[in-house]
Amino acid sequence: MTAPAPAAPAAFLAAQKSIAQPYLRFTIAIGGVNAVLLIIQAWLIAHCLDALVFNPGASIQFNTWLMSLLLIFMLRALLNWGAEQTAFQAAAQVKLTLRDRVYRHIQAAGPYWLTSQRSGALAEDLIKGIEALEAYYARYLPAMTLTAIIPLAILFTVLPLDWVTVVIMLITAPFIPIFMILIGKRVEVINQQQWRTLARMGAHFLDVIQGLATLKLFNASRRETQVIADLSDVYRRQTLAVLRVAFLSSAVLEFFATVGIAMIAVFIGFRLYHLTLPVPAWLTPPDITFAQGFFILLLAPEFYLPLRAMGTHYHSRLEAIAAAERLIAILATPLPSLPAQPQRLLTNQPLTVQFNHVQFAYEPGRAALIDVDFSLAPGERVAIVGASGAGKTTIANLLLGFIRPDQGTILIAGQPLDQLDMNEWRRQLAWLPQRPRLFQGSILDNIRLGRPELSTAAVEYAAQRARAAEFIEKLPNGYDTIIGESGVGLSGGQIQRIALARAFIRDAQLVLFDEATASLDPENESLVQAGIDELAQGRTVIMIAHRLATVTQADRILVLNAGQLVEQGTHQQLLAQRGYYCRLVAALAG
Ligand SMILES: Nc1ncnc2c1ncn2[C@@H]1O[C@H](COP(=O)(O)OP(=O)(O)OP(=O)(O)O)[C@@H](O)[C@H]1O
């Protein structure tokens, strides 16, 4: 297993920036042009008003300014729209890439890893977590860069006109980011707690919905409702705490921005009315005209605006950091090491399967399989029996490549399984688990899962062989009937037969059954068994048997006891041995 070193959330977010770089650059360039237009617009407004009030005769110049102003208004609206588009393109690019990466990682980590995860929390991370990154890339990052550009551009524009305003701006502006960072640190902690609660709540919701029947049966739904109510209450309190701090931070930002603008206005007003400014005598502030004063006053709020906007978008950063933490955790899941150059499975060779002294433990110190040694000849029908927890499913998991042996090797047609191209190997396998999973969609698509190019006729033939055609044809829309998630609307036996039809479509050399008929009624059982018998023709079969009735026909029975292969032989041979198998049969019969 290889575990990549986990990155810090901020570094992780920064690393994803490169995906969106071309769009981000464009957004920032548009922002820069917009800043220049903003200054020109303020200048034009100030001079139009100045002309209107103090120089009403100069109508030619006034008209030119007014026309330019209208043009700038339109241009800025267009640029704002463009910036918005590119910003969201940037975010969409990151989201798409990350979702794909996380999903692929989950797939590579495999079904065994998934059993240790809460699906609700995982879905929350994949959907809401990645969505939370949008505001970071679409709003926060462009806002950060513009915060550096716009105030600087305004400072340099105002400096030749009035250094007093520049001094006021320089003194008041730093308070905004300083307070924002101070408050932000506190919000960061609450935000991460809030995110974790949301994930727990999502996971719990899913558990409750999926297990509703069990909860009702055991009269436990009220207790679960209470757990959700408690979690919602914790979430509510955390949200309020975040909002309180957010209000506090925006109040602080507004306060400093307002004080700054008010001071600039007072200093300009005093000079326009030729009043003495409350400054030491040796400081002589420059004289100012109405147009200049008004121009500066129009620019003053624009100077503070990006700083205040950064305060708003800082919240997006905190949300993104909380989401990134979870995504990093998923991406840091160790993946099974893959062979550098996977070998091609020699499909022209007879498909033998050989377990050589295989050992496996899910947890250190608790071996699930100990020194298991057996081989299967092509076309052989082998049953694996043993008490619950003996290690039967573990053998299937090893063959499916979901887990790897800790010691020993598995050879397929003489080639080590861990060196094989897994996709190619799985194509040789048909697997019929105890509870097959169907997906939301038509029966047709569920049967030809993984091979969507197959014709309806091929699907119908597979369904016939799986003894499923009859019930499918009786459904209102036949093969086009939409079935719900997990096969809602179908009986257990019908689901099994659809899964069996899938196995026929696969036409694999090795068929792995996890006693598919264990929980079926006699009618369904005989139908599924007939389908299984047909599928088994000419293929190597491994049947994980939970009941001994199904194993008597097997060519060979492997008997597992607490992870060890204790006996093997035909039903008759094993009975004659009077060993563990015999006791197992007696125990089940009694
Ligand atoms: N995901 C897991 N994490 C930890 N231990 C596990 C896990 N899956 C199985 N085990 C343990 O490994 C051992 C073998 O389990 P396995 O599922 O292979 O048994 P089984 O013979 O298939 O049982 P059953 O007939 O009940 O399905 C058991 O002790 C079980 O507790």
UniProtKB/TrEMBL annotation:
GO biological process: cysteine transport
Keyword field: ATP-binding, Cell membrane, Membrane, Nucleotide-binding, Transmembrane, Transmembrane helix, Transport
Record domain ABC transmembrane type-1: where: 26-319
Classification via SUPFAM superfamilies: ABC transporter transmembrane region (SSF90123), P-loop containing nucleoside triphosphate hydrolases (SSF52540)
One function term, GO molecular function aspect: ABC-type transporter activity
One GO term describing the cellular component: plasma membrane
Superkingdom: Bacteria
Official protein name in the record: Thiol reductant ABC exporter subunit CydD
